[in-house]
Structures are given as structure tokens and as C-alpha cells.
Design goal:
Layout lengths: L18 H12 L18 H6 L1 H10 L6
Length: 71
């Protein structure tokens, strides 16, 4: 198991989702090339936990409802 954002040295309990696992499989692969501290396309950053948390409603809307991201 991996550490969680709130407790970076504690493992994620089995069956739970951690930011690190989602980041490694999703955000770092499909999002951060355009949504990072240097580029922030559309004013959106997804390169750290707090930015993902702040933008979660937009992520849900554009990825799952509108299906306009990732491009």
C-alpha cells in the first residue's frame, strides 16, 4: 500500500484509492502535460493533490459527463 496525501508515511488501507495511485495511472499520464504549474491550460492545474481536489467538479464534468477531456 501507498502513503495517503494527509498521512504521507502511512500506507493506504487495502481496497481504498489513494491520490498517488490515481496520479500515477491517470493524471500524470493524461493530464499534467497541459495542466501543470508552467502551462495550466484553461487555468486548471492537476499536478498536485490540492489542485485536483480544488478542480474535482470540473474534472467530473469534462471527463465523465461531457467527455471532452482528455484530448
Amino acid at each position: 500500500p501507498e502513503p495517503t496525501p494527509d498521512h504521507p508515511h502511512e500506507p493506504t488501507p487495502p481496497g481504498e484509492i489513494s491520490y498517488q495511485s490515481v496520479n500515477a495511472r491517470v493524471f500524470s499520464v493524461s493530464c499534467v502535460q497541459c495542466h501543470n504549474a508552467n502551462q495550466a491550460k484553461g487555468g486548471v492545474r492537476l499536478d498536485n493533490f490540492n489542485e485536483v481536489k480544488r478542480n474535482i467538479k470540473g474534472i467530473i464534468k469534462t471527463v465523465f459527463i461531457e467527455k471532452t477531456m482528455p484530448r
